[in-house]
Write a structure and sequence with these properties.
The protein has ten helices and eleven strands. By secondary structure, the protein is of the alpha/beta class. It has two domains: 87 residues, Rossmann fold, CATH 3.40.50; 123 residues, NAD(P)-binding Rossmann-like Domain (Rossmann fold). Helix 1 runs parallel beside helix 10, helix 6 crosses helix 7 and helix 6 packs across helix 10. The radius of gyration is 19 Å and the shape is globular. The mean pLDDT is 97. It binds nicotinamide-adenine-dinucleotide. The site of nicotinamide-adenine-dinucleotide (NAD) has 25 residues, from helix 10.
Length: 279
């Protein structure tokens, strides 16, 4: 029997636990969200994040700009960094092309980097020091743990080497003693490699790339991809219907990794305040 890794339900549970935890804190955590430009998808993501934050008791303040210069945005981030009442800062990506995304992300105080994208936090993940971890891979680990607690010795294949998903994902699996292989667009014999995976994570961005004959019987399959088909429906990077029976556990799209990403953003915000209180 295949276990459906229901991210929608797990995220609900995470949010309920966070709401309880927030009640016990000396004040509500505060998240600042910055949105620049008029990308409709980004506007929806920011709206969802704000709504989810408010529901668990996180104070959320959004800064929306049609246009803003690099120096003005850096000045805003500096103000938010200096504001002791702000615990988390999130800059919604992608930023418009005229802004230097790297410089903006590096300007965020690493302690307030609730997305886990700051180079210092990525470096800490690499050397095994505690730090905010990117929300999507963090959520994927929780989904994997629904299927299996101890991952020691398992073979994991991560398809995709982005800084926000693939690379941190591989580090988290390595930290839990998996033998990890990273695959990408230049990988040769990808289906063959995937067939070795006890845990397969697909973060490619191409619909239904992973086929049933790529899956090892009994594998745990995590589908990070979000792709919109011509008929308007969302689908993942894994051919879900074809692969389902071969997996021990698999995430659906939607209602898999997506809701966990938002839940982990909330968790990172709460953790940022907790770290501050414990100092
Ligand atoms: P990206 O474009 O930065 O990286 C994609 C990676 O896939 C690259 O490393 C590339 O080498 C690899 N790739 C491309 N084609 C390939 C192929 N044919 N075979 C093997 N590898 C291939 O994307 P990303 O930001 O890492 O996102 C990946 C997907 O995950 C996208 O669909 C994105 O929308 C989705 N995503 C979902 C969430 C979520 O919350 N569910 C969060 C972030 C990203």
């Amino acid at each position: 029997m295949t276990l459906l890794l229901n991210g929608f339900e797990l995220a609900k549970q995470c949010r309920a636990e966070l709401a309880e935890k927030i009640k016990s804190l000396s004040r509500a955590p505060k998240l600042a969200v910055i949105l620049v430009g008029n990308d409709p998808a980004s506007a929806v993501y920011v709206g969802n994040k704000e709504k989810a934050a408010k529901e668990v008791g996180i104070e959320s303040v959004a800064y929306r700009f049609e246009e803003i210069s690099q120096s003005e945005l850096l000045a805003l981030i500096a103000r938010l960094n200096a504001d002791n009442g702000v615990d988390g800062i999130l800059v919604q990506l992608p930023l418009p092309r005229d802004l230097n995304e790297k410089e903006i992300l590096q300007a965020i105080d690493p302690a307030k980097d609730v997305d886990g994208f700051h180079p210092l936090n990525l470096g800490k993940l690499l050397i095994g020091e505690p730090a905010p971890v990117a929300c999507t891979p963090k959520g994927c680990m929780k989904l994997i743990h629904l299927a299996k607690q101890d991952l020691t010795g398992l073979r994991a294949v991560v398809i995709g080497r982005s800084v926000i998903v693939g690379k941190p994902m591989a580090q988290l699996l390595l930290k839990e003693n998996c033998t990890v292989t990273m695959a990408h667009s230049k990988t040769e014999n990808l289906p063959e490699l995937c067939r070795t995976a006890d845990i397969l994570v697909a973060a490619i961005g191409k619909p239904k790339t992973v086929k049933a004959d790529w899956i090892k019987n009994g594998a745990i399959v995590i589908d990070v991809g979000i792709n919109r088909l011509e008929n308007g429906k969302l689908c993942g990077d894994v051919d879900f219907d074809a692969c389902f029976d071969k997996c021990a556990a698999i995430t659906p799209v939607p209602k898999g990794v997506g809701p966990m990403t938002i839940a982990m953003l909330l968790e990172n915000t709460v953790e940022a305040l907790e770290r501050k209180i414990s100092l």
